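As a warm-up, study this chain.
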Amino acid sequence: MVKQGISAREAQSLKIRESLLRACGDLLFERSIDAITINEIVQRAGVAKGSFYNHFPDKETLAATVSNLILVEVEERVRKANENVTDPAYRMVRGMCTHMQLAVSDPRRATIMLRGNDWVNAGDHQLHKSVSEDVAAGIASGRFARRCEDVGMLQIIGTGYFSMIRILDQQLSAEQAIDLATRAFSLTLCGFGLSEEEAVRIVADSARDIITG
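Now compare it with the structure written out below.
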């Protein structure tokens, strides 16, 4: 949406940028950024090719911007879902189940988010920082095994990432996604040092609350 109280030139620039973001999102839903050209993006957006470089240095930066817009919204949902939750095991699982919920309820945006930015490998992303903090808190309290210090974050985010892909590829229902989350994340929590009984209970409760919510 174009902001009020700005010059006509600024309004036009914002309009072009929004058109590029929207066009890139549409194309990302169809295929990965590697299979998309800048020519396709500007043609879909209905803008001149020169206008593209006024806003983005390359197509990868544009795709990452599109993905991040969605990811920021999901992370805000994670924050709200964990607002009164202090147990790091619950916090991590509820966070990843929030991402899985997007894959169930809005597969289009989930697909765009995954294709637009390799946030699994983006070590400086807020998602990584949040999970790392929960892992550190769990280790400090003795809840998690110390072996999780270096790889715990990779375990939980990797499990969430590939669970989202499974949901999208197989078009899983909410109930099927809950079953997937319960099996996948309980296995991860067992690796963190929790008993199988407790791990299953934590994930089953979290998945049903978040994914059906």
